[in-house]
Amino acid sequence: MDVNTEDILTQSFDVLVIGAGGAGLRAAIESRSRGLSTAVICKSLYGKAHTVMAEGGVAAALGNVYSEDNWKVHFRDTVRGGKMLNNWRMAQLHAQEAPDRVLELEAWGALFDRTDDGRILQRDFGGHRYARLAHVGDRTGLEMIRTLQNKATSVGIEVFMEHKILRILVDASGNACGALGYTRPSGQFVLFKAKAIVLATGGIGRSWKYTSNSWESTGDGHALAFSAGADMIDMECVQFHPTGMVWPLSVRGLLVTEGVRGDGGALLNSENQRFMFNYIPEMFRAETAETEEEADRWYEDHASARRTPDLLPRDEVARAINAEVKAGRGSPHGGVFLDIASRRTPEYIKRRLPSMYSQFLELAGVDITQEPMEVGPTCHYMMGGVRVDADTAATTVPGLFAAGEVAGGMHGANRLGGNSLSDLIVFGRRAGIGAADYAEGLAGTVDPEVSQATETAKEALAPFSRETGESPYRIHADLQECMQTLVGIIRTESELLQALDEISKLKERASKASVQGGREYNPAWNLATDLPSMLAVSEMVTRGALDRKESRGGHTRDDYPSPDPEFAKVNLVQRMQDGTHTVQPEPLPEMPEELKALFEDDHTGQAPKEDH
Amino acid sequence: MVSTVEDTGVKSGTAIPVEIGKPRGGPEGRRTLRQDRWWLSPAVTVTVLTSFIAYATFAAFQGRYYYVGAQQHRNLISPFYSPCIANSCQRVAGSHPLGIWASFWNFSPALLILIVPLGFRLTCYYYRKAYYRSFWQSPPACGVADGHKSYTGETRFPLILQNIHRYFLYLALLFNVVLTMDAVLAFNFPGQGIGFSVGTLVLCVNAALLWIYTVSCHACRHLCGGQLNKFSKHPIRYRFWKAITPLNARHMQLAWVSLIFVALTDLYVRLVASGIIHDYKIF
Amino acid sequence: MTEVTMSIWRGDSSGGSFFDYNLERVEGEVVLDVVHRIQATLAPDLACRWNCKAGKCGSCSAEIDGKPSLMCMTRMDTLPNDKITITPMKTFPIIRDLVTDVSFNYVMARQIPPFTPGDPEPDGTYRMQQVDIDRAQEFHKCIECFLCQDVCHVIRDHEVNKLYYAGPRFFVRLASLDMHPLDTVDRRELARQHLGLGFCNITKCCTEVCPEHIKITDNAIIPLKERVVDSSYDPIAWLGRKIRRKVKYTVDQVYALAPAQVAPTALDRLPATAIDDEGKS
Ligand code: SF4
Ligand code: SF4
Ligand code: FES
Ligand code: FES
């Protein structure tokens, strides 16, 4: 099938934001408020982005519940949770700016739960020293996206719903200046010209079988940036959320918010033991409770008791659950038990965790106010991603910016719960500013190479012209199976090599896939065009995992079970260099002394004080 | 399959810039695809409401047997006839503090009195739902096509008058006071002193149910506190609102129970007054 | 286990019909799982929308056995029949199979003036008590599945009313703004004259279908109607306003604040289909 330029619709904007989740909308609001014409591209409908699935809350050191809290503590928690692999500057900006961003949401109409004196209430979460998560029951993401959506609506952003972007277009000198995509309802190709482009496409979970992510999370942004020549960092760091549903099978992987544990839920194995007490790592021993009694007391009083090990960072909990199940102490459907029923009253549970309550009741027939839940790890979040400049969110490709999950560095090797929503609004805004500054500095019009567009469109249509070939659904299912078993939560060299092999076979198969029917809202074709992204991301994850010969955060190697201080100093950078895919260790930016000092009192368990 | 755009002559307001008249999906010409017994609930509503209206009409026009007085050592009045203010209420008047002031009215007093409860229930948000669905078929049930070609809802006369519901509420509250007085007076057994009979009980329950139904009214909930935006600044009104809210959630049930019980109360008084049954005195 | 027949309406703007698919029943499945199985095996190009598969995004709205529902939250074992029909939402224009064009709702969203808070506290932040936000928080649960819009007979059965009627989802939004303790705009005249609050005859179908169990009619629409009575129909309230010299926004004043007026986008420049006074196009 041939595609001519006339078959492609053209749209021009100053700033193009790809992705309409929290980061994308926040970036668009910023750039539109500067008076620049701004478009947002949604892969699905407006307001449905994966941000709505975020449950627990948005981390910000507001200090409303514990006035001892400040950005330094938050910074320290974040970097320790990230196993020191974080970009320090991002972590610092994030911790410093998150409170303002949260208050700004409130000024835009968000209704967070309140403290008695009318401020924003904050809840405890894994890895956060103080109750820090501003939240709305267990639907914080929904509140955030709706608030940003309404704000974006009111400032006049052009929204392109149900558009899939296939390629970032660059001009003759390698600057990003456009994107080619198609709209799902009609299959019409659209060329977006823009002076600056913000990637805010979110995650990658759809390459795994059991994931908390929606169908949209195919890693489009990672793949787009990579093929446009951007640097990617630490792609091996994938977070498996410790608590996803394990039953019924059809909802396996669906998230069970950490808020359950933050609000008093405890993890139990089949012998009714709170096994997390056996898995406290050295780094957190000083500030973790030793007895169940102390852990339970901590919920009421953080001063005299230390935190429960149920709320260790996610990587620790996920590994512990994995180990319990392997040791034969799992629940009937291959998870462990998460019990809040025997620990809190039904009224409390329903008030604090309303959507968990209905999710289990309606989908699994389990009343969580009466019975424990069965939970197990599920593929949740990509810590790695496009390498960006912390202050401007600029990638290594001029004109291309990235924010949110698609950007790497902020979370290091493991993300703390609640830090993703704050990441979205802090760096969404910065990307908006960065892109707006960049766009304002460009004179004249941009000029993407149209041949790139027609070529890409032609490739996208190829599956229609193949009479025989596999269904993309088959290939997708096989990819998920491969990633789940070979590049899951615990990895080894032989399996990773096998995975690389399988991925290249899958690539081969994908290039021969065929789809029937027309271009109008054809999910088979849509999936076929998602496959290249998923395959590219899978390959990056696998290659990164092969090269990081240590265990750190979300990345656990069976054959290198402990962290290696040498690897703590480097990002694994992947890029396309002269047509070859390279993986290279490159040193992390050096943290300034005054921030380093924050980690020195680690052993005392003392929190840093804010100096005024 | 283009849905036809009928001319409803709507002129209120300016049009919103949406495209209309585009083809819709789904099978054509089917009223509904529901397979459950969706017609049951409107059918029950029609049956019960029609029976009530039939009974109330009979009771209102009968013009007698609405009061059990001193001859039977009782002081029971039918709620359909209270406050008995019309010319024909002489027999009641002696024992009733409100007296006769609508002496111009020579027909059955019920025809005058029933305007208030009728208006209250007719404009009640719940009954509106019930009769719009069942009698007016607009819509008969969710996902079942409206029985009418054009529709303007409550935007125009006469249905725009539904907005005066709160004034009927004020009147209904007054009536409740009267009916409560009737219930209190029913403790008086002329010639026998204070006592308690089945009739007393019936009048008490009836008054109580009417109070709860009236208080659970949406307009009442609004006026008591719902109209406020900052509850924390008005703790007392907030407390009222909070107390009414769970009742309001059961407004439908209360509407039916109180309706049926009013009819039963009238029936009881009527049966006693006409000598068919005897009002059993408990103590 | 037993078999089930899924009878799915397939077609586009030029027409369509039911297609039957026979499958094994699998324990614990929801309707969306079955639709996915059909896609993966029998009909790869069967169009349907979904995202989260957890009842959180409001994408997978359709009509199951004639009832507007989320496919991902309807368990197969709650459906009594062995033949189950799935049709696209009836109220919105068809795109293909189970996918409809819901842009009506995005246009409506642009008719409502945004949240406009008053002055913050001296420290630049706001204070709100939990009791003051409980009501609006219920409305913020809305996942914009538009099932209430679909079921509402005002536009489901009377296409022309789409020109005058925002629908229950947006009454919920109006109520959440009106009851927001910090908001300062009075949108009541807008609700009455421009957004068609009076069209709703409180027959509660929206409440029946809302997957978030928002008491749309009892807690949003009826309170809004009562608030409109305060501002427009109650003579005593009118007198009170006159005496206290309170001004009421006119519909034009409020509408001037709506995004469609302040910051128009392509959505607001829809071919206005040459709507004449009678609403005929
Ligand atoms: S109650 Fe009103 S808004 Fe809701 S479905 Fe009925 S008519 Fe529509
Ligand atoms: S109010 Fe309920 S039914 Fe309507 S769109 Fe929102 S969630 Fe859906
Ligand atoms: S009596 Fe039913 S709403 Fe007022
Ligand atoms: S898929 Fe998100 S609500 Fe059904």
Quickly count the domains of chain B: 2
Distance between the termini of chain A: 66 Å
What is the rounded Rg of chain B?
A: 23 Å
Fraction of residues in H or I helices of chain B: 40-55%
Unreliable stretches of chain B:
1-13
Name the strands of the widest sheet of chain B in spatial order. 1-2
The CATH architecture of the largest domain in chain A can be given as 3-Layer(bba) Sandwich
Strand runs of chain A, count: 20
Helix/strand order of chain B, N-terminal first = HEEHHHHHEEHHHH
- Total of DSSP H or I helical runs spanning 4+ residues of chain B: 10
Oligomer: heterotrimer
What is the mean predicted local confidence, pLDDT of chain A?
94
Mean pLDDT of chain B: 90
Helix content of chain A: 25-40%
CATH-defined topology of the largest domain in chain A = FAD/NAD(P)-binding domain
Fraction of residues in β-strands of chain B: under 5%
CATH class of the largest domain in chain A: Alpha Beta
Task: Please explain how this structure is put together.
The complex is a heterotrimer of chains A (612), B (283) and C (281). Chain A is of the alpha/beta class. Chain A folds into three domains: 8-237 and 383-447, FAD/NAD(P)-binding domain; 241-379, Flavocytochrome C3, Chain A, domain 1; 463-564, Methane Monooxygenase Hydroxylase, Chain G, domain 1 (Up-down Bundle), CATH 1.20.58. In chain A, 35% of the residues lie in helices and 17% in strands. Chain A is built from 17 helices and 20 strands. Chain A has helices at 22-33, 71-81, 88-107, 140-155, 220-227, 259-262, 282-285, 292-298, 314-326, 346-352, 354-364, 419-440, 450-465, 472-486, 493-510, 523-547, 593-596, and strands at 8-18, 38-41, 58-59, 122-123, 133-134, 158-160, 163-170, 176-183, 189-199, 232-233, 238-245, 266-268, 336-339, 373-382, 385-386, 400-402, 490-491, 556-557, 570-577, 580-587. In chain A, the strands form five sheets. In chain A, strands 1, 2, 6, 7, 8, 9 and 16 form a seven-stranded mixed sheet that branches. Chain A has a four-stranded antiparallel sheet with strand order 15-10-19-20, with helices on one face. A four-stranded antiparallel sheet of chain A has the order 11-14-13-12, with helices on one face. In chain A, strand 8 (176-183) and strand 9 (189-199) form a beta hairpin. Chain A starts with 7 loop residues before the first strand and ends in a 16-residue tail after the last helix. By secondary structure, chain B is mainly alpha-helical. Chain B folds into two domains: 1-36, no CATH class; 37-273, no CATH class. Chain B is built from ten helices and four strands. Chain B has helices at residues 40-62, 90-93, 109-113, 115-123, 125-134, 165-185, 198-215, 218-226, 235-249, 251-273, and strands spanning 67-68, 76-77, 188-189, 193-194. In chain B, strands 1-2 form a two-stranded antiparallel sheet. In chain B, helix 1 packs across helix 5 (125-134), helix 1 (40-62) runs parallel beside helix 10 and helix 7 packs antiparallel against helix 10 (251-273). The model of chain B is unreliable at 1-13 (pLDDT under 50). Chain C is α+β, with helices and mostly antiparallel strands. Chain C has helices at residues 31-41, 103-109, 130-140, 147-151, 153-156, 168-178, 188-194, 205-209, 216-233, 235-243, 251-255, 259-262; strands at residues 3-12, 15-24, 61-64, 67-70, 83-87, 94-96, 99-100. Residues 272-281 of chain C have low confidence and may be disordered. Chain C has two domains: 3-100, Beta-grasp domain (Ubiquitin-like (UB roll), Roll), CATH 3.10.20; 103-257, Fumarate Reductase Iron-sulfur Protein, Chain B, domain 2. Chain C contains twelve helices and seven strands. The chains are: A alpha/beta (612), B mainly alpha (283), C alpha+beta (281). Chains in contact: A-C, B-C.
